[in-house]
Amino acid sequence: MTDTATLPPPTDRAAPKISFVSLGCPKALVDSERIITRLRAEGYELSRSHQGADLVLVNTCGFLDSAKAESLAAIGDALKENGRVIVTGCMGAEPDQIRAAHPSVLAITGPQQYESVLAAVHEAAPPKHDPFLDLVPPQGIKLTPRHYAYLKISEGCNNRCTFCIIPKLRGDLVSRPLGEVMREAEKLVAAGVKELLVVSQDTSAYGIDVKYAESQWRDRSWRTKFLDLAQALGELGVWVRMQYVYPYPHVDEVIPLMAEGKILPYIDIPFQHAHPDVLRRMKRPAHQEKTVERIRRWREICPDLTIRSTFIVGFPGETEKEFEFLLDWLDEVGLDRVGCFKYEPVAGATSNALEGQVPPEVMERRWHRFMKKQAEISARRLKRKVGTRQQVLVDEVGPTVVRARSKGDAPEIDGSVFIHTRRKLAVGELVTVKIDRAGDYDLFASL
Ligand code: SF4
């Protein structure tokens, strides 16, 4: 994902101008927003292009080798177009690789090293102090559209999935106190945000590192805990979407809040596989054989629940039998939204040493079989919505077609609801529509 920021026109041309490239996942996007907020507060301007900027800042993603290649290409483009480049983000944890490809970058800092990246910017393009320019909206600068925003609740991860190097890059779990998260959420809502997307590496583990320490918000004390966070966010009166949740037993407690409409009936659980032996080789957290039964109970409590997940096919040692188990499991569980990746060895991941690497052509075939199966399941699940009335949030307005999302669609990763209408709707508006038709991934509706 790449995002460029949209900001009000500059008022003082003499202020240093930064061109910003943000690559990677929503968590990286939140980091970008924080860095930009700080830079704006110090009087920097954002440039819409690399040319003419005093400096280019590239926030990289280093999760997969393909993401690293994308990051290196973005750095290369920035050097070509501007020549003065600072690199930060996940890939910054591996400076040698960056220097080998692009020796002329000015500085490299790692993920969440806000102070270091700001220090590097100060050195390369010293800030111009101006009390008027130093003003920044209290809610900060957001790269995401005004009507939705990501809310990052923690950094790092205590799990050690064998295919993942995030804990090496970002360290162990560090949860933000609930009060601090809620104050940020309140500011976003006050600034017009209609949907908050809760992100972290492992949202359901929130607060484990601080032993669920109590923290003050409004007139009471709350535990820094997944359930309390869901309850508190449910008081804000906006859409609240939970992402990257693992099926720990305590997740069951949050499902009734979804049924009551306090938070969205949507849960994003990156299962990655279904076969117990593959999950063991992956060292996935909270994997257990009773998942099918739990999902069935969740849907009894909250029939509108949308479950999204991601999977990896071709993980080392994955046999045809294990893969078929996964296909059967998908059929049985009937997940609503699913993404699928072909296994990619990431430098530094322990899964590289596992036996039985799956040949690329086998992986490719499995990926197509998986996608075909899931397209059928997704179409089946979506068809159930035809004829119902759904509340949707407007994302984009065209002359005759409006693109919106239902409660079951997260921005950027899920499908859309297309509304044919000449009525003037506004971006960020909540409207109720009638679902007329369903495709494999999208819905078509009228007012
Ligand atoms: S839960 Fe696993 S995949 Fe996710 S960040 Fe932690 S170690 Fe990586």
Automatic annotation (TrEMBL):
Where [4Fe-4S] cluster 2 binds, per the record, is at 157, 161, 164
Q: Where is the MTTase N-terminal domain?
A: 16-126
Q: What class of enzyme is it?
A: transferase
Subcellular location, record wording: Cytoplasm
Name the EC number(s).
2.8.4.4
| Residues covered by the Radical SAM core domain | 143-380
Recorded GO MF terms: 4 iron, 4 sulfur cluster binding; aspartic acid methylthiotransferase activity; metal ion binding; protein methylthiotransferase activity
SUPFAM superfamilies per UniProt: Radical SAM enzymes (SSF102114)
Q: How is the cofactor bound?
A: Binds 2 [4Fe-4S] clusters. One cluster is coordinated with 3 cysteines and an exchangeable S-adenosyl-L-methionine.
Provide the reaction this enzyme catalyses.
L-aspartate(89)-[ribosomal protein uS12]-hydrogen + (sulfur carrier)-SH + AH2 + 2 S-adenosyl-L-methionine = 3-methylsulfanyl-L-aspartate(89)-[ribosomal protein uS12]-hydrogen + (sulfur carrier)-H + 5'-deoxyadenosine + L-methionine + A + S-adenosyl-L-homocysteine + 2 H(+)
Q: Give the main location.
A: cytoplasm
Q: Which GO terms describe its cellular component?
A: cytosol; ribosome
A biological process term (GO) from this entry: tRNA modification
Keywords for this entry? 4Fe-4S, Cytoplasm, Iron, Iron-sulfur, Metal-binding, Ribonucleoprotein, Ribosomal protein, S-adenosyl-L-methionine, Transferase
Query: Which cofactors go with this protein?
Result: [4Fe-4S] cluster
Domain TRAM intervals: 383-447
- The residues that hold [4Fe-4S] cluster 1 are 25, 61, 90
Family as reported in the entry's similarity comment:
Belongs to the methylthiotransferase family. RimO subfamily.
The protein's role, per its UniProt record: Catalyzes the methylthiolation of an aspartic acid residue of ribosomal protein uS12.
| Family annotation (NCBIfam families) | 30S ribosomal protein S12 methylthiotransferase RimO (TIGR01125), MiaB/RimO family radical SAM methylthiotransferase (TIGR00089)
What is this protein called in UniProt? Ribosomal protein uS12 methylthiotransferase RimO
The gene for this chain is: rimO
